[in-house]
Structure formats: structure tokens, C-alpha cells
Amino acid sequence: MDNLALIESFVDFKDEKSIDRITLMKILEETLQSVLRKKYGSDDNFDIIVNPDKGDLEIWHNRIVVADGFSEDDALEIELAEARLIEPDFEIGEEVSERIPIESLGRRAILTLRQTLVAKVMEHDNSNLYEKFKGIIGEIVTGEIHHIRHKHVIIMDEEQNEMILPKENQIPSDFFRKGETLRAIVDDVKLRGSKPQIILSRTSPKFLEKLFEQEIPEIYDGLITIKNVVRIPGDKAKVAVESYDDRIDPVGACVGMKGSRIHSIVRELRNENIDVINYTNNMSLFITRALNPAKISNIEINEEENKALVHVAADEVSKAIGKGGYNVRLASKLVGMEIDIFREGAQDEDVELTEFVDEIDDWVIEAFKAIGLDTAKSILEQDVDDLVKRTDLEEETIQDVINILKSEFED
């Protein structure tokens, strides 16, 4: 490989990786210095001139002229007779600069040079890639699904950078096809050896927040502020928004006419149910809005324990708690306070079993309903041994349920 071929080869790297000229020259000089040190023990008395734009590369070996037979180190000194073959009027003590052809370094050295060049270019590329994605953590990226594996999905962006969407960062109802376009946020960037690993997420609350910014101009422009976002990915989410302009309805602006604005976000999140809530500093009012659609009778706030006791009518409990307890759980996270739901009149009235979903597992409730027991009192009137035979539930499980139900009817 001569000088021109080497430079042309290296310029290919430059064009492919978009390395600037100064960095290109620095990498090539460092690589050549490394090869020279291996061959001569030092690179101190070598000058390297690189001009990648012209395809020009020169290596000059600088040595001091000594008398014939007195050279102790061929890397540092050159005998007079050999120096005069380069230029006939050299004298002892003068410095000789001799141009060294690349091929004179030997085949092994040239191969090492080539391999080192590739390694340094890759190192530079990986470093740039790491810094680039480290700087956009929390931002949305778009890519094409390249490969679907059991534990993760590989996505390629426009620059063919590989990104990984792990199983735990996927919405449960996500379904992928190779070649489809996918949106997610950059959740983390890790180094595996020298190669950056870009981790994406579609379950992070930040992903929903960024979707709001993209789809709703008032949020992008700063007219509406997102105060908090909480999610149970694929099921339900709550977003608290605030406008500093009284003329702008933040909830209406986010939802749009007949849900037109939020529809694309819901579709992106696989039909995740999104509640948009008008933020307020009035904690009682904020909790009331957060527990929508339940109608709240009264709220008692204990600031020392950071808890709120919310009183609702018996027929509003299931709405306040929500399916699987999602509504009250998300409301607690949204307002930053533990919320306990209190059923008014529970001491005197029977209570639907479904209203205990925050305390009793769904499958246990279904086991009772399967034998016609769908209220608290209908279960409390039964014999424990009889319930064990009829439901196939463990006696311990049934006793736990009875204890929960009894507490509702105690003073």
C-alpha cells in the first residue's frame, strides 16, 4: 500500500463517519507514530506530514551525520557515506532528513497501521455517538424496527445507529413488525466495552410528556406547562397541566375538539386511557380532580403524615378506586400524597365486592362471584368451611377476605 492508496482508504472512513479534517489528521498522525515507535523504538526524530484532502502523506526521518563506523543507533544517527548518497555535500554533525516510503515500513507494519487506523476511527465514532445520545436522554427518537428478539427489539435510526428497546420498556400491548417505524425516548446510554448501547423506553412518563410537547402547540410554545405525569403503561395515565394565561383552558387545549389532539397520543400508547387534569395549588381541589370521575363527599388532609382520607358514597367507591385500583393509585402519585378511600354508610349498607379491588385480588373476587356471592354481606353470612368447598380457594385466603370485609362494618 503506497501513500496515495493509504490516504484514499482513510478518506473513505472520513466520508463514511463524517470526521472533520483536523480530527482525521490527528488520528492518522497518532497511528503512524505508534507504528514508528514499534519499528524504531521512538518517534521523536520523525516528522509526519499529512494532507488528506490532496491524498498526500510524507514521513521524514531526521538523523545526525557521524563518521563512518561510529553509528551507535541507526534510528538516531547516519554514517557519512550513507548520508552523501542522499546529498553529496553533507558533513559530520549535520542533520539529514530522509523521506521514508510507507512500503519501507514492511508488510506487517502496514497491516498493523491499517488495523490501528480502523480501530481509532471506530473509537472516535463510538465516542461521538455516546456523547450525542447522552445529550438527548429524555428526548423522542424515531427509527425503523430492524430485528425482533424475545427480550428486546433492535431499532435503527436514519444514520444506521443501533438502538435497543428492552422488553421491560415496552408497552404490554405493543406489537412490532420488521420495517415499521417506531417512536420512543432515549432512556439511557451505557458503554459495553468501547461501544455505546442506546436504551429506549416507551413506558417512561417522560415519553408521554414528550408526546404532549410534540402534538400540542401550546405546550411546545410554553403557554401550557406540564406539572406532572404518571402512568400505568398501556392502561391508564394522568397528566396535570397548568396555563398562566387565564384565556387558555389547558385541559381543553390538550384534549382538542372531540379529543382530536389527544387521539394520536392515545393511539401511539396502544389505547392508553389518558386523564388530563387542571393543576391547582389547592390540594383538596387537586385530589378531587385527580379522582375524577368519582364524586367526592369530603376530604380530610393530614399534612404531617402526607395522607388524605377521601369520603365517597358507596356507589362512587368503584369509580374512585378504578379497575385494579389504577385510579386511586395514579391519583396518589399525581398529587404526591397517599390517598385512602372511605366508604360512607358502609356500616349499615351492603357493599359490592368489586369495590374492594384495592384490597382483594381480582381473581379472588371472581371466584366468589362465580358462586353467586357478589357483596360483602353475602360472604360474611357464609360458613368458612362451606366457602372453601364451593370456591376451591385456600382457607387462609378466605379468612383474609372475611377480615377485610368485617373491617368495613366495624365502628
TrEMBL record:
Q: Which InterPro entries match?
A: KH_dom-like_a/b (IPR015946), KH_NusA_2nd (IPR058582), KH_sf_prok-type (IPR009019), NA-bd_OB-fold (IPR012340), NusA_N_sf (IPR036555), TF_NusA (IPR010213), TF_NusA_bacterial (IPR030842), TF_NusA_KH_1st (IPR025249)
Protein localization? Cytoplasm
Q: Does the keyword section mention Transcription regulation?
A: yes
What is a single cellular component term in the Gene Ontology annotation?
Answer: cytosol
NusA-like second KH domain: residues covered: 284-345
Any Pfam family matching the protein: KH_NusA_1st
Keyword field: Cytoplasm, RNA-binding, Transcription, Transcription antitermination, Transcription regulation, Transcription termination
Please report the stretch or stretches of sequence annotated as the Transcription factor NusA N-terminal domain: 6-124
Q: Which GO terms describe its molecular function?
A: DNA-binding transcription factor activity; RNA binding
Name the SUPFAM superfamilies on file: Nucleic acid-binding proteins, Prokaryotic type KH domain (KH-domain type II), Transcription factor NusA, N-terminal domain
Q: Which residues form the Transcription factor NusA first KH domain?
A: 202-279
Q: Which GO terms describe its biological process?
A: DNA-templated transcription termination; transcription antitermination
Q: Which NCBIfam families match?
A: NusA
Physiological role: Participates in both transcription termination and antitermination.
Concerning its family, UniProt says: Belongs to the NusA family.
Cite the record's note on assembly: Monomer. Binds directly to the core enzyme of the DNA-dependent RNA polymerase and to nascent RNA.
What is this protein called in UniProt? Transcription termination/antitermination protein NusA
Per the UniProt record, the source organism is Faecalibacter macacae
Gene symbol? Answer: nusA
